[in-house]
Amino acid sequence: MVASPFARPLYVLAKPAGATCNLNCKYCYYLEKQQLYPREASRMMSDELLEEFVRSYIGLQTMMEVNFTWHGGEPLMRTVEFFQKALVLQQKYAQGRRIVNCIQTNGTLLNDRWCEFFAKNHFLVGVSIDGPQDFHDEYRTNKAGAPTWQKVVNGIKLLNKYGVEWNAMAVVNDFNADYPVEFYRFFRDELKCRYLQFTPIVERDAEGKVTDFSVDADQWGSFLCQMFDEWLKKDVGEMFVQTFDATLANWMGEAPGVCSLAPECGHAGAMEWNGDVYSCDHFVFPEYRLGNIRENTFTEMLYSDRQKAFGRQKSESLPTQCKQCDVRFACNGECPKNRFLKTSDGEDGLNFLCKGYKKFFHHVRPYMDFMAAELKANRDPANVIEFAKRNMK
Predict the structure, then answer these.
(1) Which residue out of 205, 276, 281, 326 is catalytically annotated?
(2) Could you read off the pLDDT of 343-358 as tens digits, one per residue?
């Protein structure tokens, strides 16, 4: 029996300020999306469209909990009042459902008013910070080219002051990838961060050449292995690292919770400020525009045959080398946007980071095997810490 696609939550990254941002991060893939709407003087979501979004987004959900994710650009380019309106509308259309709000910010605009608002309304705040000051300021600068790290750290202190739940989102690039232990200890020891997400930056220029700031496969593999070893010493069950959690989920045969490592994609769309809906946040291009919420329902767009095909393409387009790989179950070819190399047989579709992921999955195999066995036996996977002490070379 095939499970109904409606049996799982559907997510949309809403961009109330579009690609508008107060920073000019060198590696940002989204700033260029302003070019999609060159004739628009303002790229801000209207109150009318906000209500249509909230109403239709809640209306299509089949779960009792509805997750709103506010993204950018920089969503704090909007005012507190905009999000207050969103909360009022959420309650208007909730019909008994529990509403959860998450927002991703660069952290530089956080102040007492924002943090008080987030605390009062139980927002989960994701903060973009790339590690210690030298790492972060290498690429994350404002429009004038000035560093931003101190403003972000000040914002995190305010979140802590008001008791706001937050997690860190870091980009791993050619620079900070060479210092995985220092990177990890900064989040654990200096920021006291318990929930860490990081993503490798792989971008290409107009000619298809990989940019200088992108992490390469060898760096990525070494970064993951060294950070995992550091985490394994004492932090299992205390520090939650999304990549490690997702890897363990795949080892257990469960949904990994991160689309890049899932067998298929396509269940999380992106909606621009004007209601245009795209297949994925990394595929906001005209050819992946599914429609507009003023003209199409989310169900029509995100459960369409076209979107289902987009999601299946991830597994269906795997080259033979990937299909025969012993760690395919843990990787699933990673994100389709990074599959632009040729395999050893000359077949298209090999992931740029393949070598690094393969190194990592082979490195963690005995520890993932152990944790999976512990979980299946209803024991604490943190027992792997003692197991690692006895077995790590």
Answers:
(1) 281
(2) 999 999 999 999 999 9
